[in-house]
Write a structure and sequence with these properties.
The chain contains nine helices and ten strands. It is of the alpha/beta class. It folds into three domains: about 90 residues, no CATH class; about 100 residues, Tetratricopeptide repeat domain (Serine Threonine Protein Phosphatase 5, Tetratricopeptide repeat, Alpha Horseshoe); about 60 residues, Sandwich (Immunoglobulin-like). Strands 5-4-7-8 form a four-stranded antiparallel sheet, with helices on one face. Strands 2-1-10 form a three-stranded parallel sheet. Helix content is about 50%, strand content about 20%.
């Protein structure tokens, strides 16, 4: 293996070609322990050189997990701050201020719509916002928030022990005899993304969702190698509502996660998919992909 690697590196970097950097991307074999041992042996055998970068899908994927945790923590702190400001404004009868703070918290936490626990939390915030609006005398806006709350989490409803009778009556009005004559058509660029409405079973884009109630619904869009999207869409009764979404390529660590998932997949499309994802992970002139196998490095 050492001779084969040296020959590959010579072809990649030699011969007078204008090659500045070669990236060696290490991908695991089926056995995690074998891959780890093979990577340690390979690293010992490669001398340091400025034109060679050695990395692995697992390491890049771990960077994605760290980045996601940091982003989530920062957003969570900011949302908590907004909710605390809303509580203070409400207690001081500043209903407009409370409405603004809650709306901003909802916007920050919108990506939570991809998870069941996140949808429950968003529903509770819509319910809280509805209460502020009805106290402020904005009846129609409160009803809209209550319908959104019901769409994203049908189990969410006002608590008679905590909420005023006026809000409970509004909730009954907002959710009784709701028609299901609306439809939504979601198109993504590129196509083939997983699209879900209010946490329903995902469909591949272009995706059509029929027999849904008019009003606002959360849609979530996911595709390997791209940033996930979460949007609040107002679906009108009668004519189909169409939403087009241009997906944004994910950062390198997120594309590494996608490559790693594809690498572990089955079927004829698995290998071309992970190789295509891996090829986007580096700006080097040459990319050498080595599959790790402990026996090959002995």
């Amino acid at each position: 293996m050492a001779v084969m690697f040296a020959a590959l590196l010579s072809v990649a970097c030699g011969g007078g070609a204008a090659v500045r950097t070669t990236t060696v991307l290490l991908v695991p074999s089926g056995d995690a322990a074998e891959s780890s041992e093979a990577e340690r042996v390979l690293r010992r055998r490669i001398t340091e050189r400025e034109d060679l970068e050695l990395t692995s899908l697992a390491r890049l994927a771990s960077l994605a997990a760290d980045a996601e945790r940091e982003d989530t923590d920062a957003v969570e702190m900011e949302a908590q701050h907004r909710m605390a400001e809303a509580d203070e404004a409400f207690s001081n009868f500043d209903y407009a201020g409370a409405t603004t703070q809650l709306a901003e918290a909802l916007d920050l936490l919108r990506p939570l719509a991809a998870r069941a626990t996140g949808r429950q939390r968003l529903a509770a915030l819509h319910l809280q916002l509805a209460n502020v609006l009805q106290v402020h005398g904005e009846r129609d806006a409160a009803i809209e928030e209550l319908r959104t709350c019901h769409h994203i989490d049908p189990a969410c409803h006002p608590d008679p022990a905590r909420h005023p009778p006026e809000l409970i009556a509004l909730f009954a009005e907002a959710t009784e005899s709701v028609s299901e004559d609306a439809s939504l058509h979601v198109i993504t660029d590129p196509p083939g993304a997983r699209v879900s409405v209010d946490g329903c079973e995902p469909r591949l884009s272009p995706a059509r969702f029929g027999s849904i109630s008019p009003g606002r619904h959360y849609i979530t869009i996911e595709r390997d190698g791209f940033r996930p999207e979460a949007q609040l869409v107002n679906v009108a009764a009668g004519e189909p509502t169409e939403r087009s979404v241009a997906l944004t390529a994910g950062a390198a660590p997120h594309r590494a996660q996608a490559a790693l998932r594809a690498l572990r997949g089955d079927g004829p499309d698995a290998e071309p998919l992970w190789r295509a994802q891996a090829a986007t992970l580096t700006e080097a002139d040459v990319l050498l992909v080595l599959r790790l196998d402990r026996d090959a490095f002995r």
